[in-house]
Automatic annotation (TrEMBL), chains A, B:
This is HTH tetR-type domain-containing protein. It comes from the Bacteria. Keywords: DNA-binding, Transcription, Transcription regulation. GO terms for molecular function: DNA-binding transcription factor activity; transcription cis-regulatory region binding. Pfam families: TetR_C_1 (PF02909), TetR_N (PF00440). Residues 20-39 bind DNA. The lineage of its organism: Bacteria, Bacillati, Actinomycetota, Actinomycetes, Streptosporangiales. InterPro entries: Homeodomain-like_sf, HTH-type_TetR-like_transc_reg, HTH_TetR, Repressor_TetR_C, Tet_transcr_reg_TetR-rel_C_sf. PROSITE patterns: HTH_TETR_2 (PS50977). One of its GO terms (biological process) is negative regulation of DNA-templated transcription. Residues 1-57 form the HTH tetR-type domain. The keyword Acetylation does not apply.
Length: 194, 194
DNA sequence: ACCTGAACACCGTTCAAGT
DNA sequence: ACCTGAACACCGTTCAAGT
């Protein structure tokens, strides 16, 4: 059996919020102990899944000809966000393995090519991963449509207007914090810094 | 026994990388089952610890008189980073409870007071929490001195110069990605956006 | 190398019963 | 309300033994 088969099943189980070595073994038709032939332990398996997931975003967007560096970064960031939000339970693992994995290295190198100052490219990584992590944190599984999610937040996030007047007044904008528009707005703001 | 006693012991155990309900019970001199009088389940306990930890950063920095809005945000962000990096294992829980907790609500309100556009205040939150999360992800317990950590990264992060020339060339800056200077640099860049 | 069966040393949570 | 003792239904990981 290919390790990829095991990793795909592991991602499925993460999406269902129930990744255990035993459940994974049963899903791929093995005994729990047999999994340790493929990965030394659970943590290694999760790291491998995280790197595989990272590679699902189209890395070539970062080298797309005919686009400005900022547009390349924006289109890749949007693609990455889309991939990762479909698997919110895997996002913490991505944060953990953000630097170590081979795919992350590739992304880092491309990012350095687009921005002259390495400090700026790290700032972009921090923003992109931070935004995705905050959005993922409030998802249980694959996300419902964005409009639905925003509408839910609008009713969910009501606060005491006396104690938190500004938060109360900004309710609609705050509900849309998890929107693609807000994500793009923040990224552009960061990229437009002098 | 006060719930705070239980929460403090829980944070201790998180720092040691070994928070279990059984270990917690034994540390505070109770039976595992007795903990469920204080918190409905493990997740609720962790959320409560996260909020308590968030409150350890000096919230009054966000209202300090005589400082510009940007300086208030910077000093609070630095204080928050210091508190959270002392407890890296608790940071994922902070990300998860970033919006729900009562203390987070207070921080959000203050941030809205400092910046005219709510979208900008969210962008700052994303950056600050993202940077802290990435730094925390590579810590096992309370962090060694910064210089030591950077020096370790400098030798740790060596890559193939042929495959990743820009990453190789920027090694020193990349090693310092987890520095206070880099954190401040990115934050200022974000705040200086037009 | 890959896999099974069985075990070891743990988990979180529940619940009758006591105070 | 708070706590104990004991149980239930799980975990990850190891390892002799088989192929």
């Amino acid at each position: 059996m290919e390790p990829e088969t095991v990793m795909d099943a592991a991602l499925e189980l993460m999406d269902e919020g129930a990744l255990t070595m035993r459940a994974l073994a049963s899903r791929v038709g093995l005994t729990p102990g047999a999994l340790y032939t493929y990965f030394p332990d659970r943590a290694a398996l999760v790291s491998a899944v995280a790197d595989r997931l990272l590679a699902e975003a189209d890395l070539t967007l970062l080298d797309a000809p005919g686009l400005s560096p900022h547009d390349r970064i924006e289109s890749f960031a949007l693609a990455l966000r889309e991939v990762l939000l479909r698997h919110p339970a895997a996002v913490p693992a991505i944060l953990g393995a953000a630097f170590s994995g081979p795919t992350a290295l590739h992304v880092g190198e491309s990012l350095l090519r687009e921005l002259s100052d390495p400090r700026a490219s790290y700032t972009v990584m921090v923003y992109v991963l931070g935004a995705i992590a905050l959005e993922a944190a409030e998802l249980e599984g694959p996300p419902p449509p964005e409009e639905e999610r925003i509408a839910l937040r609008r009713t969910y996030l009501v606060v005491d207007p006396e104690a938190f007047p500004l938060t109360h007044a900004a309710n609609d904008v705050i509900a849309a914090y998890i929107s693609t528009d807000q994500f793009r707005w923040g990224l552009r703001r960061l990229l437009s810094a002098p």
